Structures are given as C-alpha cells and as structure tokens.
Amino acid sequence: MSRTRTALLALALTAASGVASAQPADVIHWWTSGGESKAVNVFATEFDARGGKWVDNAVVGGPAARAAALNRIAGGNPPAATMWNVGVAVRQLAEQGMLTELDDIAKAGKWVENLPPLIVKNISYNGHIIAVPVDLHGGNWMFYSKKIYDELKIQPAKNWDEFLIQAEKIKAAGYIPLSIGGQPFQEVWLWLPVLLGSAGKEDFKKIYADHDAKLAAGPGVKKAFEVMRKLAAYTDAGRPNRKWNDSLLLVQNNKAASQFLGDWGKGEFAAAGLKPQIDYGCAMAPGNDGAYMMNVDVFAFPKSKNPTTIAAQRKLAEVMMDPAVQVKFNAFKGALPARLDADTGALDACAQIGKAIIDGGPANQMPNTALAFSPDVDGQITDLITQYFNSTTMTAEAATAAFAKIIANADK
Amino acid sequence: MRSLAARLVLSPTALITLVCFYGCAVWTAYISLTRSSFFPNYEFSGIAQYTRLFSTERWNVAYANMFIFGVLLVAGALALGIILALMIDRNVRGEGFFRTIMLYPLAMSFIVTGLAWQWVLSPSIGVQHFVRDLGFPDFTFDWVARQDRAIYTLVFAGVWHQAGLIMAIMLAGLRGVDRDIWKATRIEGIPVWRVYLGIVLPMLRPLVVTCVVLLSVAVVKSYDLVVAMTGGGPGFASDLPGKFVVEFSFERANIGQASAAAVVMLGSIFAALAPYFYIEMRRKAT
To answer: Which chain A residue is nearest to residue B249, measuring alpha carbons?
Structure first.
C-alpha cells in the first residue's frame, strides 16, 4: 500500500513540476560575436515562448567550448545540449553511447526528407538520428571589392587560371590581389575551393566523401597544389598570424581585391554597414559554380536520466528544426537553413545564389573537411596545406604524394 | 611528537604532489601506449603512438624548436639580465627608474608580449614598414614571415620578457656581496671587471641556478607566447611541443598522440636538466 502511494506521489510530483515550472535546458555554444549572439537568441526566445527555460552557457572559442562540453559529459554532469560542427566527431560521441536518439521527433518532423543526404549521414549513427543541424554555411565563397573590380573592369573569374591572370593585373594596379591571414585553418579555407575548382566537383567529392586515394594522387590534386603556390605570391607581407576578420578588413577598405572564406564573412560586412552585391561582391570561388561546400553547425543532446531534462531536450530539438525558426536564426547567422523546405525569400542576395545551388540536388552538395574526415585526419591535411603554402622548397609532386598518403590512411 | 605534527601538516601537500603530479604523469605515460582518440581507451597497443609521432614532420620541427628556443632563451635572458644588473650595480644615476623600466615587461602576460611583438615585427606595419618610410625602401626585416627565421623572433620576445626578472634576482645578489671584498680587491689593485668575473659572479652561482630553473619553466610553458605571436607559423615553422600537445588533445581529439608528445617532452626536459643539477649538487656536497 505504502509503496503504491509513494509511486503515485512521485508521479504527481513529476507531473506537477512539468506543468508548474518551465523546463530548464543549459546549452553550451560558442556563438559570442554580434551577429552570432543575435542568432542564438532566436532559439532562446522561441524555446522560452514554448514553455522552456533557456540557460545560456556561451564559451568563447570553439576548442574551449568543446573541451567544456566533453569535460562535463565525462564528469557525469552533461549539459542539456551542446553545439558542434557536424562531422565525424559527433558520430564518435554517439559511438561512445553518449547522445540521445531523436528518431521519433525526426520522423514526425520529416527531417530525413528535408535535409541534404550528406547531412543525414552525418547526424546518424547506426540508423539513429543523434543531432540537430541548424544551418548550412557555404565554405567556398569569394568576397571581392566591387570598387577594385569595377575600376579594372573585371568580373569574378570562372576558373583559377583566369583568376591568376586577373591577379597580375590587380597587383600592377597597386592592390593586394588576394587577402588571407597566415593561420592554418584560413589556408585550408583557400585550399578547398582551389582543389574543387582544379579537380572538378565529381573528383572532389570522390576524394573527400569516398576517400579515393588514387584520385588523391592524380593530376587534379597536383594542379591544385601548383595553383596554391602561385596564389601565395599574390598575398601581402602582413599575412603572418593575421586573423581572418582583420584580413577581410583589407577587402572592406578596398586595399585588397578578394578573399576566400565561408559566408560567415558576411557578418563582418554587415557590422560595417555594407550590403551584399552593392557595397561588396560575393560569388562562388573560381571553378566552384554549381558546388556548395557545406559547413554545418549542429546541436547534440547528451543522454540524461532526469525526466525534466529529457522533456526539455525534446522540445529544444523541435524548436531548432522548425523551418520558420531556422530562417529567422539564419538571417542573423548568414547561412542557409539546414531544412531545404524552409522559405528563404527573406534572406540576402548572396544567400539566394547559394540556395539555388543547394536546391540543385545532392550532386551540388559538397562536404567540407569536417564532414569528410575525423579531426585527426583533418589536422594532418591542415598541417600539410600550411606547410606547403608557406614553403618555398616543397614541390607540388611531394605535396600531392603526401596528400594521397593521408587520404589512403584515412578510415573509410 | 613534533615530527608527527610536521608530518600531519605536510601530508596534504605530499598527497597532492603524489596524485596530481606523479599520478597524472604515470596515467599520461600509460595513455601514450594506447590508441585513445576522443576519450581515454585503456587497451594496450605498444609504441605505435611514438612511431607515428617521430614520423610526423610537424612534431620533429616542434621538438627541434624546443631546443633552439630553450637554449637561446636561457642563454640570452641570463646574459642580458646579468649585464643589466652589473650596469645598475655601478651606482648609475636614476637606478630606481631603470630598474622599474627593465622589470616592466615581466608585468605583462605572454599573450600581450606576443601580440605586441607580432605588431612590431610584422613587415606591413612594424619595424620594416617604419624604416622604409624613413627613406630606406630596400630595408627588409621579415623574420616573422620566414619559415627559417620565425623561431628566433620568439626568442627576442622571450628574452625581452624575462631579462628583467633575471636582472632583479642578480641585482639582489650583487647587493648582498660583502663590501669588505670590494675594499680588499681595491687595495690589491684588481680591475673591476676581473673582480666581477673572477670573484663576485662565482659567489652568486646559486642565484644563477635559480635563474636557469625559472627560465626553463618559462620555456616549457611558453605555449601562450607562440599562440599570440606567430600561431606556430608560417606553416608550422615556429611550433613548440606545448602547442602540439594542446592541439592534439583538444582540437584533434587524439589523446594518445598528445600523451606520447607530452611524455617525450617531460623526458627530454628531465634529460637536459638532470646532469646540470647533478653537477650543482656535487659542488655543494664537496
């Protein structure tokens, strides 16, 4: 008798707490810059409006935020949700059995039908959905100075050979043809569109998504390394260890003609009050037409035993996958909604170019390094690219061989 | 009874040292013998991590840099610090002023030091730009942008940062030297530089040992200086083992590889410093 009563009491209490107080969810993320924090606030507001209570846990810097999340998971006090860049790393967390499966919510919300297949693959583990993708950043953009391009009467180049010819002209006119900061990840941002443009999108996909070592040793890759070496000559001397937003300032101030980076660059222009395609130009990188290199942020939900937390996690997942919420979020974030069925009419001129490409189907949807490789292999490629780009002695042949070796040893 | 009280008081310290320092060192050494990636994995896998470590070019560069940076920083800061201390010891006017100025760099974190020196050395805004604007258009000083020179720019910044501390320590020592020694040498007519070199500095040997220890610690923990100043670049030419370990354990989710690097780091520092301490200890004994 008494046992039944206790059970009933517990049930009543649980129900009461579910109704009376809001469901709190502490969320770890590293969106701290102006546009980013406005974007994440969209989720917070919407979650609170639907009866949740967003507990913000912003950590400055991706590595620090990820370390904080990992430490809390390992220490048995996991956050309700933690942000991650989608890729093999998230699947490794799932492999350890640490993430909540969201299959029923995903089915109800028709996630699989409305996401790019490559993303579905990367948010799944053993057939279970284990993360919520919130945006589709494009990594292969070229941002350029309209003033310099108009002055020299040139259009964004269609391939890298044409870009190099234009670069010579830009240099002769006294401008910096290519702005880049000398940090390894920025050099990889340049490498990806150069490889895609040199090897073509089919081969790029085979090398990155399928880890085709034979193609990785082929002429397309070698050509990409040759282009990289030539591009290095068109950068400025202030490159060493310069941040990407400081480099973009050179394009904003019309001192440099172009920079290659993802659409997060738009946030910097917006902060300076500049408008896309009016004050500055955006185009797909040379040879990257019809290819959208996806760079995706996801939220994952570490397993919890607390029923209130579990309810909060499920609500949070629904909020984040709501197409309308995703559009509002990405208006600040500068990316496309991860859901392809979202109405993106309100997004800016650059986003429209990207949307047209992504809607062209899976053939246009390219993986970035994180989608293709484990953080360890990703790091090996980064080391090779930065070593080559800054070296004057390493040959394109040697770099190609080293690249092929990394791809061959990368796990399938 | 007294010894029991002393033991009781010291036991927490001993426990912390044992668990946190030795315990973690042993744990790291074990992890370096596994295939741990994201999370620790305790399955033994032999020396595979070490084989891979020493066939990784980036590690070999970082490892060699540790010796270049270490030797030059210790020697440079020691030499500059002692010279500054000797100059101040000659009762220059405005001693307090100079002492403060020279100690100032130490008040700054390595992050600020690194950033300031990055700007000073950056070819497009720093020294090179300045001298060119003065009317020497061919002047070139782009070490921070050159793969073969970048590591030496870290030495500049490190010496600049640490020399003041060495000066302060050595100056305190110089002031402690018995004035009678100076009187005696003056009567004997020995030149000042010979007194310093032959008598005073050898007397300060224990202080020099302290300085070497402090500088070695600075070398090992110089992670923030590299990150702020060169970011390990251009490429990975100015990488140091500390940065390598942090990057592999957190960003690259490869704890096994990071642990192997950490173990090699610990071993090398131990191997480099042990003979020095051994010699010093023996001198004390005799």
So the answer is: A67
